[in-house]
Design goal:
Largest sheet: 2 strands, antiparallel
Number of domains: 1
Number of helices: 3
Distance between the termini: 23 Å
Strand content: 15-25%
Strand order of the largest sheet: 1-2
Number of strands: 4
CATH class: Alpha Beta
Shape: globular
């Protein structure tokens, strides 16, 4: 997650890259496009064959509802800039950031934490995420 810099209520919150799905675009294609636009400044580094749907989430705010199509992916190490990223603590995923993350993302963070923690503990990550 990165700190969001924009006008509005979510300015300063930690958030995953994302955005709206464009016409004739699948949720997976939108996830890859948004990642390239927001994280990699348009550079192509995320391989589509290394991106999978994770889980869908819905959340109702007082003024709107959101549906999140979350995806996970793999890219070459060292592609991301080393600064500006927040690493999720697998043991206590929301402890330090609960007030810094939009409510719609709380369940997603907990689920991602459990998923990756399980992969790391049993070693199955090596089957899912073979080296590029």
């Amino acid at each position: 997650m990165q700190t969001r810099h924009e006008e509005g209520l979510l300015n300063g919150f930690l958030e995953f890259p994302g955005g709206k799905i464009e016409a004739e675009e699948s949720p997976k294609e939108a996830a890859i496009r948004e990642f390239h636009e927001e994280v990699l400044d348009g550079k192509e580094a995320l391989r589509i064959d290394r991106v999978s749907a994770f889980k869908n989430y819905s959340y109702d705010y007082p003024d709107r509802s959101v549906l999140l199509f979350s995806h996970i992916g793999q890219m070459a190490q060292g592609t991301l800039a080393p600064k500006g990223w927040y690493k999720i603590d697998f043991e206590r995923p929301l402890e330090q950031i609960k007030d810094k993350v939009p409510q719609a993302n709380h369940e997603l963070i907990i689920d991602l934490s459990r998923y990756f923690h399980g992969l790391m503990e049993d070693g199955s990550w090596s089957e899912l995420w073979t080296p590029l």
